[in-house]
Write a structure and sequence with these properties.
Layout (H helix, E strand, L loop, with lengths): L8 H13 L14 H6 L1 H20 L1
Pfam family, one: DUF7089
InterPro entries: DUF7089 (IPR055515)
Length: 63
Amino acid sequence: EVARGETDFASATEYACSAVRHGLDLPAPFAALDTGAYRDRGALYAVKWAEKTFESMVAETAD
């Protein structure tokens, strides 16, 4: 939904937090953090993922 512009990032973040709280599947793009890479690399992986996600979003809005 975020990639298609149907949901803003803040709303998707709130939904993802709710999903974690209630043991539900994470929505995209947050499902990317529910991987072996995150479990193996921890917070640094999550920070890099967030930076790349925001950079991508900024680049899309600049076009």
